[in-house]
Write a structure and sequence with these properties.
Layout: H1 5-31, H2 46-63, H3 68-116
């Protein structure tokens, strides 16, 4: 697909903005441990807790500017999440295969029993 110069400029602008966003989330996950795990507290407190985490991260950024390492942290986090999702998919697929094999074996055994118990004419 051929991009026009305007589209290319737009993509470059978005890429620069995306870097800053990834750096922010990397910093957030680095300094706010609560954002690295499933939210463990009452759900009705989650919005306020996340707002506080974002505010504190912004305050931290005012004192310590974003760096490439912050973006790297976010990228590592995303890789871990993707690996966990893939692992769960693999485990589920394996479990489904085992269940299918058990169902097939049971169906074959039932067919053999039915065949053995059919009256002979």
């Amino acid at each position: 697909m051929v991009n026009s110069p305007a589209q290319k400029n737009q993509q470059e602008w978005l890429a620069r903005k995306r870097v800053v966003v990834e750096q922010f989330f990397g910093r957030l996950k680095t300094i706010m441990g609560i954002t690295r795990v499933k939210y463990p507290f009452q759900k009705d407190h989650m919005d306020m807790d996340m707002q506080i985490c974002v505010w504190l991260t912004n305050q931290h950024i005012l004192q310590h500017h974003l760096a490439d390492s912050d973006g790297d942290m976010y990228t590592k986090y995303i890789r871990v999440v993707h690996a966990q999702v893939e692992s769960e998919k693999r485990k589920k697929a394996e479990a489904n295969q085992v269940q299918a094999l058990k169902r097939r074996k049971l169906a074959e055994e039932n067919a053999e029993l039915i065949a053995a118990n059919e009256p002979q004419f």
